[in-house]
């Protein structure tokens, strides 16, 4: 049922309408995409437009992210040689200024159409406010609900996807103005952002902002983690749930946390052979029973769902506890050879697979919040910055609300509750009509939130595992994937004098590439803090400056219309 | 308490270059640097030689001062080459020429007049019509009518250059105290006692002090009762992802604010004087979205192929202006405290100004006429 055909390196590739180029190529077994600075190929890693590893040339345009690029009939896709060359002929455009940009006005601008953003939009709209929601994907829903592209909208896979579709429908029918495919470039002030959509820049201007930008997977450098076929657990899940593409038959999943268990089961259901799931936490030890009990008390349904995944994987003898992915290399017969074992060393086991999925937790996508000057606090247990908020989810910058995982990872149910709380709170602040029913809903959401936070606390107590940082990387393992900066070089620069993170960045180019330091930055910040006895405050991380993600110049200033 | 011969305030290129010469003379030198408002670490690496049209437009009354200093810019670029050779470092210095483009005859005439004045001052400058331009700069778009070419202009990699100088300082045993500010400076009968705040808080005794703190120099001098009118000019910068070699020159515009060039690693750096802003209690330089649009729009207008590239990062640099000329020499009433500020195009002039400042502090001939550069000129104003 291929209804789209495009070429890859001159050869035809069949795709389903609604799939991305990256998904269609993955399903066809084409995993090697861009060429790295130091040679070698990279492929889909994050699967959601963050890592910039899957760059391809589409009809001569370089730097297109295969994971987001729609598969259109007749396009010509090529691997991108380093560094990527712009097309030769193009016409200049007359100079424009900020005042020439279109302005979309609303009472509230919501950034991110995942669980938290949709819930905030629905609540604020329910109070009569004009709500504009920007979401970067072609179909809003976020990384938890993972909505399939419109053309692939067959019966939802399960309750999780159906719930997302229902919430989106609720937002649409309530009159929330959802702009799919809108990428925020940078914040302008506490109510406005600069964004692009369909190759045109515009300003979204409201009286308040709700930032609901979610999270991305934490980078844990280990030997072989840049090989095509090694991707995040979230990428593997997106390929199947959003695009119905399986990137390989034999899969090994390694990481920490329940998402890995869920994706393992989903992949088995999709027809893959999951050879092992390596969970870093020992999980089953006696002292964790208390945590498991508290999880069950806080949210019996969710605890049962997780317990079901565990039991299923254990029955099939796929589960390995207290072990990590230690190294990945090309297998002699093709595919990948992966070694899992205790992080501290000792005997491990080796598997030959097509795909290795890594899921060692998440980092909040707090770039906009940090650029706006919202205060953050280091959470040592979770190993991330948490956005400082009051009970209504307002940040330390008046008018800027933040909900969901971008504030420091609380899970989708908490994001939903926070969205409702923030939507009603900002409606109160902006003079919206808060009905008794909505006020009750916000109160209920506050009680739900407390319960979800108890669940999350217990969950991460049960799944507690040492943070791996740079410990799995070998001396020559690339830490900064964009600029190909190895661990030994990075640590040498970090140990030379008393450098701040910006000094190390300038010395090594670590963090200067297209992903803007998202995968190398947090681990480097922790390393420098430990070494130099520095506080892990906002300054300990790379400075947050626009654009939030790379943005095509023509899209910003004219001539980029698609 | 730390004791040194010279305390250099400001760890930018001027302070580092001065410290290099002072340490080579056998002096014990310490550099303190605040690290938050640095022009040097945020610099984009243009080697400016011809007069920047931006400066003429913004500060017409200061243009004669800049013009008189032009031979210094040629020497400044030459000093960069020497420094790289002395240190055996690849700083990616390329003097492949700078083009200032005109879009119409009026702009072209303005450049032609400028070109004639600069040529009289000994600069290697030429006017190019559209046909000649197309031959040497095929990347320029149809909007460009002609240009002035200055052969001595070019670029270098500030990342590599700063790192090479830092390593040389470390090898000479210069004490570098980062994330540290000078609190107070006072005579204590033996020498000068400075209190330090920040990461290396404490006190330090020194024989002499060099103020090489860019736009912060004015405040430091004011604390000693001396007027040095430095102004911070926060400027917006953009950088694209890397691409194949495309742009060989440093490109500027006769009438509009833009500089663009391609670094050795392939990224195109786009700036040219669009404003950034200082935000927060400690005046952290922050980018301005309006400048991003205006600046990039102009870049695509002049070099259309750039439109297909993505901007991956923006940042705010800090330029220091005063009266368009260097500020060099002892402070009135403080013969042991010396100023070292380039006054404009600080990165191009940095190694030369640092060298001249070290010479003056050491009682040597600076090698150029510095009679107009004294601090006392501001007291008289």
Count of all domains of chain B: 2
Which class of the largest domain in chain A in CATH terms? Alpha Beta
Compressed to H and E, one letter per element, the order of chain B equals EHEEHHEHEHEEHEEEEHEEEEEEHEEEHH
What does the main sheet of chain A amount to?
A: 5 strands, mixed
The residue ranges of chain A in which pLDDT falls below 50 over 5 or more consecutive positions are none
Please give the domain count of chain A.
4
If strands are numbered along the chain, what order do they take across the biggest sheet of chain A?
2-1-7-5-6
Q: How much of the sequence of chain B is in beta strands? A: 25-35%
Number of helices of chain B: 10
* Major sheet of chain B: 8 strands, mixed
For this structure, the CATH topology of the largest domain in chain B is: FAD/NAD(P)-binding domain
**Helix/sheet category of chain A:** alpha/beta
How far is the first residue's CA from the last residue's CA of chain A?
Answer: 27 Å
**DSSP summary, beta strand count of chain B:** 20
**Measured distance between first and last alpha carbons of chain B:** 39 Å
What is the share of helical residues of chain A?
25-40%
**How large is the radius of gyration of chain A?**
23 Å
Assembly category: heterodimer
Q: What amount of the residues of chain A lies in strands?
A: 15-25%
CATH topology of the largest domain in chain A: FAD/NAD(P)-binding domain
Mean pLDDT of chain B: 94
């Amino acid at each position: 049922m291929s209804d789209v055909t495009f070429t890859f390196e001159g050869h035809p590739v069949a795709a389903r309408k609604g799939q991305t180029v990256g998904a269609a190529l993955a399903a066809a077994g084409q995993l090697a995409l861009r060429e790295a600075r130091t040679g070698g190929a990279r492929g889909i890693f994050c699967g959601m437009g963050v890592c910039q590893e899957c760059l391809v040339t589409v009809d001569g345009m370089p730097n297109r992210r295969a994971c987001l690029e729609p598969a259109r009939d007749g396009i010509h896709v090529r691997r991108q040689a380093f560094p990527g060359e712009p097309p030769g002929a193009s016409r200049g455009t007359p100079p424009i200024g900020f005042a020439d940009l279109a302005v979309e006005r609303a009472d509230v601008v919501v950034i991110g159409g995942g669980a938290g953003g949709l819930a905030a939009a629905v609540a604020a709209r329910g109070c009569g406010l004009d709500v504009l929601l920007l979401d970067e994907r072609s179909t809003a829903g976020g990384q938890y609900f993972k909505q399939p592209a419109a053309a692939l909208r067959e019966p939802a896979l399960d309750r999780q996807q159906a719930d997302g579709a229902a919430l989106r429908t609720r937002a649409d029918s309530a009159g929330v103005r959802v702009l799919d495919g809108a990428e925020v470039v940078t914040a302008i002030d506490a109510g406005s952002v600069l964004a692009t959509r369909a190759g045109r820049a515009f300003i979204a201007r409201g009286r308040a902002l709700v930032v609901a930008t979610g999270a991305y997977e934490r980078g844990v450098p280990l030997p072989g983690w840049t090989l095509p076929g090694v991707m995040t657990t979230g990428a593997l899940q997106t390929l199947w749930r959003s695009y119905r593409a399986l990137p390989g038959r034999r899969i090994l999943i390694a990481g920490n946390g329940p998402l890995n268990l869920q994706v393992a089961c989903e992949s088995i259901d999709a027809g893959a052979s999951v050879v092992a799931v390596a969970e870093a936490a020992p999980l089953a030890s006696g002292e964790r029973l208390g945590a498991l009990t508290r999880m069950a008390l806080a949210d019996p349904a969710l605890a049962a769902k997780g317990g079901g995944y565990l039991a299923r994987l254990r029955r099939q003898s796929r589960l390995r506890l207290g072990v990590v992915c230690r190294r990945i290399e090309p297998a002699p017969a093709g595919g990948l050879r992966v070694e899992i074992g205790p992080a501290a060393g000792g005997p491990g086991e080796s598997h030959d697979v097509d795909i290795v999925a890594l899921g060692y937790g998440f980092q909040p996508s707090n770039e906009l919040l940090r650029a706006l000057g919202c205060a953050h606090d280091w959470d040592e247990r979770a190993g991330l910055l948490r956005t400082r908020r009051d009970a209504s989810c307002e940040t330390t910058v008046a008018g800027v609300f933040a909900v969901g995982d971008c504030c420091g990872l609380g899970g989708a149910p908490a994001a939903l509750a926070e969205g409702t709380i923030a939507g009603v709170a900002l409606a109160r602040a902006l003079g919206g009509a808060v009905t008794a029913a909505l006020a009750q809903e916000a109160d209920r959401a506050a009680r739900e939130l407390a319960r979800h936070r108890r669940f999350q606390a217990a969950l991460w107590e049960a799944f507690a595992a040492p943070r791996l940082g740079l410990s799995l990387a070998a001396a020559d393992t690339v830490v900064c994937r964009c600029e190909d900066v190895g661990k030994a070089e990075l640590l040498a620069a970090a140990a030379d004098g008393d450098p701040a993170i910006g000094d190390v960045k300038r010395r090594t180019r670590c963090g200067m590439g297209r992903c803007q330091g998202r995968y190398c930055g947090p681990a480097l910040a922790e390393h420098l803090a430990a070494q130099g006895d520095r506080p892990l405050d906002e300054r300990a991380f790379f400075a947050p400056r626009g654009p939030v993600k790379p943005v095509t110049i023509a899209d910003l200033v004219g001539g980029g219309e698609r | 308490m730390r004791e040194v011969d010279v305390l250099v305030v400001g760890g930018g290129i001027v302070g580092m270059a001065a410290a290099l010469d002072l340490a080579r003379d056998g002096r014990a030198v310490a550099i303190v640097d605040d690290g938050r408002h640095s022009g040097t670490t945020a610099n984009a690496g243009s080697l400016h030689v011809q007069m920047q049209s931006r400066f003429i437009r913004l500060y017409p009354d200061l243009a004669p001062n800049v013009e008189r200093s032009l031979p210094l810019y040629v020497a400044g670029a030459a000093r960069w080459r020497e420094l790289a050779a002395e240190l055996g470092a690849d700083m990616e210095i390329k003097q492949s020429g700078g083009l200032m483009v005109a879009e119409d005859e009026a702009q072209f005439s303005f450049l032609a007049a400028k070109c004639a004045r600069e040529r009289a001052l000994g600069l290697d400058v030429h006017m190019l019509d559209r046909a000649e331009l197309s031959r040497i700069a095929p990347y320029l778009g149809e909007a460009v009518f002609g240009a002035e070419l200055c052969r001595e202009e070019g670029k270098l990699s500030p990342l590599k250059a700063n790192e090479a100088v830092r390593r040389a300082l470390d090898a000479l045993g210069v004490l570098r105290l980062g994330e540290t500010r000078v609190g107070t400076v006072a005579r204590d009968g033996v020498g000068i006692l400075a209190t330090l705040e920040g990461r290396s808080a404490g006190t330090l005794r020194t024989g002499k002090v060099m103020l090489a703190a860019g736009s912060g120099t004015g405040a430091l001098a004011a604390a000693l009762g001396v007027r040095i009118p430095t102004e911070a000019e926060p400027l917006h910068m953009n950088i694209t992802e890397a691409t194949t070699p495309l742009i060989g020159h440093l490109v500027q515009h006769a009438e509009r604010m833009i500089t663009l060039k391609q670094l050795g690693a392939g990224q195109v750096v786009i700036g040219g004087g669009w404003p950034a802003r200082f935000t927060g209690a400690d005046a952290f330089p922050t980018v301005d979205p309006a400048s991003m649009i205006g600046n990039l729009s102009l870049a695509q207008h002049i070099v259309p192929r750039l439109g297909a590239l993505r901007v991956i990062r923006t940042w705010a640099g800090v330029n220091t202006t005063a009266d368009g000329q260097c500020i060099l020499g002892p402070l009135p009433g403080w013969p042991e405290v010396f100023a070292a500020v380039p006054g404009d195009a600080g990165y191009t002039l940095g190694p030369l100004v640092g060298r001249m400042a070290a010479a003056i502090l050491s009682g040597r001939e600076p090698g150029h006429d510095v009679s107009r550069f004294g601090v006392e000129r501001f007291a008289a104003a």
